[in-house]
Amino acid sequence: MARPVENRAATRTITLHRASAIEAARGRGLGIIRNLSTQGAMVETIVPLAVDDALDLVVATGVRIPARVRWVRDGRAGLEFERKTPLSHVLDRSGGGEAELRRRMPRLTIAQPVAITDASGTWQGTTIDISTHGLRLACDDPLALGRVRLDLPGLPPIGARVLRRQRTHYGCLFDRPFGMADVTAWLHEVERR
Question: What Pfam families does the record tag this protein with (predicted)?
């Protein structure tokens, strides 16, 4: 089989398993950056994409990179960035270790009802955003830091810990991380309702 013609204008940096969020008109979800350069990236995702789609690639550092889809094949897509992007915007993971990495996982904004249950009762809240490792929620009732069960529409009960509180906003860490495809599939299901 003939090798495809190389069309890259910039040198590729191999980067395996770098998490990202993808926001396009056809859908949004999580993906994995398989390789990148200052001018583009190859991503793996179940987000439906087509050639010439415009999208935003949101990386763990919080940087939003506007891009255009140049090719799609077998759950992967080649992206061309609108402007040259320093690799440090994508690769920087300075300090913090595992806890910092969990907080910097790409998050998808989603407002869904959530029931929060601990040893003293059940309260109602609304999700603010979700990642593979946890979610942020708003709840008018004061929640204690510690173990909870989260009940979200379309998902089995989730064991988690409330780790952070800032007024009525709470940061929760799942007992077991979700796969990127699972979070994306759940998001698509919720958005279809």
Answer: PilZ (PF07238)
